[in-house]
Amino acid sequence: MKQIFHKPEAKQINILDSRFYQNEDGQYLPSVTTILDVYPKGFGFNQWLQDVGSNASAVLDRAAKFGSTVHGAAEHLNAGHELKWADEDGNARFAVDEWKALLKYAEFWKLCTPKLVANEKSLCSDALGYGGTLDMVVTIGGELWLIDIKTSNYLHTTHELQLSAYAELWNDTHPDKIERTGILWLKASTKTTKIDLERCIFQGNGWQLKTFDRHYSDAFKIFKHVHAIWNEENPNYKPLNQIYPDTIKL
User: Fold this and answer.
1) Is residue 8 within 8 Å of residue 246, measured between CB atoms?
2) Spatial contact of 30 and 18, defined as CB atoms under 8 Å apart
3) Are 246 and 12 in contact (CB under 8 A)?
4) pLDDT band for position 182 (50/70/90)?
C-alpha cells in the first residue's frame, strides 16, 4: 500500500511505494503488512487470480476501499461519535454493505461489552525491526485483547501472523501484556448468536471474533522466519519516493 504526503511548503506531493514507519533517529522500518507480502498466498489465492484475470486489480481496489471505509467508521465509533447513514442533504454516506458491516460491529460492542484501551495505535520498535498500526486493544472479561478488524471474504494465515507481530509490538512498548488476540471478522458465515466468555466464543449473525488454537507467541515464531526472508531480500530498506508538483497550470 502506498503512502501519500502533501508538503505544501515545498509545493510537492510525495508518493512512497510501501507502508513504513520511522523511528526517533529517522530510520525506516517496514510495516508488518509489508513484511508479510513475501509469505506465500497459497493455492486458493492463485486460483482466484486465474479466475478473475485482468479484473484482479479492480476487485482488490474495491475490497481495499470497503475495508478502509469500515475501519475509518469503526475508529469514529470508538472515539464516541455517532454515525449517520445520510448527510444533511439526505445523500448516503455509506454503501449498503458498508452499513451492514458497521451494524455488525456495533452488535459486537453491545453483546461483548469490551472496554477500549487503545484505538488505531501506531507503534514501531527498533528491537523488533518493524512498525504497525493496531486497530484496537480492549479488555473483555478482565483480559487484555488485541483485536484486528477484517472485512475480507476469507481469513488467511497471514492474518494470524499479523496479529502475533502486533501483539509482540505492543508488549515491547507497554508494561501491560496482551493476553489474547482475535480477528473481528465482519463477513463470517455464522448464523446464530452465541457469547460464551469462558470458552472464548463471541459471534452473531454474519460476524465472529475469531480466535486461534495456538498462542500468538507460537505464531510469532513463523512471523520471525518471514521477517528474516524479507530482510535478506531488502538489506538496505528505504521506500521509493515519487515526487510531483501539487499544482498544475497551463
Assistant:
1) yes
2) yes
3) yes
4) very high
Q: Give the pLDDT confidence of 22-62 residue by residue, as tens digits.
A: 777 777 888 899 899 899 876 565 565 565 566 656 656 77
CA–CA distances in Å: residue 145 to residues 110, 191, 200, 240: 17, 24, 11, 35
Q: Determine the topology of domain 44-240 in CATH.
A: Lambda Exonuclease; Chain A (3.90.320)
Banded model confidence at residue 249, pLDDT cuts 50, 70, 90:
confident
- Domain ranges (residues) in the chain: 44-240
C-alpha cell of residue 106? 456495533
| Coil vs helix vs strand at 30 | strand
Phi, psi of 37 (to 5 degrees): -65, -25
Q: How deeply is 4 buried, as exposed, middle or buried, from its count of CB atoms within 10 A (0-12, 13-18, 19+)? A: exposed
- Maximal C-alpha separation, the chain: 67
DSSP single-letter state for residue 75 = H
Quote the CA–CA distance of 84 and 248 in Å, as a whole number. 36
Q: Where are the alpha helices (DSSP H) in 113-180?
A: 157-173
Tell me what pLDDT residue 209 has: 97
| Inter-residue contact 149 to 129 (CB < 8 Å) | no
